[in-house]
Amino acid sequence: MSISTTLQDCLSRKGSQYDIVHHAHTHSTSETAQVAHVPGDRLAKTVLLADERGYVAAVLPSTFRLDMSELRDTTGRDLELVREAELSALFQDCEIGAVPPVGMAYGMQTYLDESLAMQPDIYFEAGDHEDLIHMRTEQFLNLMDKAERGSFAHRWST
């Protein structure tokens, strides 16, 4: 596959400057970070949720877990995780589990965890399990300018 068409259009419309990092096929964000030699705090993952009003994307570092109660406080919505079976219909130009963070380009409200704004650069899935987009944080925040920002994730405890 490679970069999803929707993501490519979004990057182009925003005039984003980025690099593509190709890596061996992976099955999880932690594996991707390891194989691509990317710090997990800089690898953004997208978690999809829904309620009766529709779908929502939450974007957070791969080393963090989503705090559902804090996300509910941030959004004012009673959101539940979306089942993997629904993902292919929502992100037709992406492989399951390789969803880029630009939920707004797919017509859904997107929330960005503030912790990503503290990183010097960001990596994220390009739509497949073998390519990452890499960009400076200022470019990423420009790309995500329609996302609402909040604090709704915490580092995984070991």
Structure, described:
The protein is an alpha/beta fold and 158 residues long. The protein has one domain (5-148): YbaK/aminoacyl-tRNA synthetase-associated domain (YbaK protein). The chain is built from five helices and ten strands; from the N terminus they run αβαβββαβαβββαββ. Strands 1, 2, 3, 5, 6, 7, 8 and 9 form an eight-stranded mixed β-sheet that branches. The chain has a two-stranded antiparallel sheet with strand order 4-10. The longest helix is centred in the first third of the chain and has 10 residues, at 5-14. 36% of the residues are buried. Keywords: Aminoacyl-tRNA synthetase, Ligase. It comes from Pseudogulbenkiania ferrooxidans 2002.
* Share of helical residues: 25-40%
Can you tell me the overall shape? Answer: globular
> How many domains?
1
Q: What is the arithmetic mean of pLDDT?
A: 94
N-to-C SSE series? HEHEEEHEHEEEHEE
CATH topology: YbaK protein
Strand content: 25-35%
Q: Which oligomeric form is depicted? A: single chain
**CATH H-level name... which superfamily?**
YbaK/aminoacyl-tRNA synthetase-associated domain
The CATH class assignment is: Alpha Beta
Which radius of gyration do the C-alpha atoms yield?
Answer: 14 Å
How are the elements arranged and paired?
Blueprint: H1 5-14, E1 19-22, H2 29-36, E2 43-51, E3 54-61, E4 64-66, H3 68-75, E5 80-81, H4 84-90, E6 109-113, E7 121-125, E8 131-136, H5 137-143, E9 148-150, E10 153-155
Parallel strand pairs: 2-7, 3-6, 6-9
Antiparallel strand pairs: 1-8, 2-3, 2-5, 4-10, 7-8
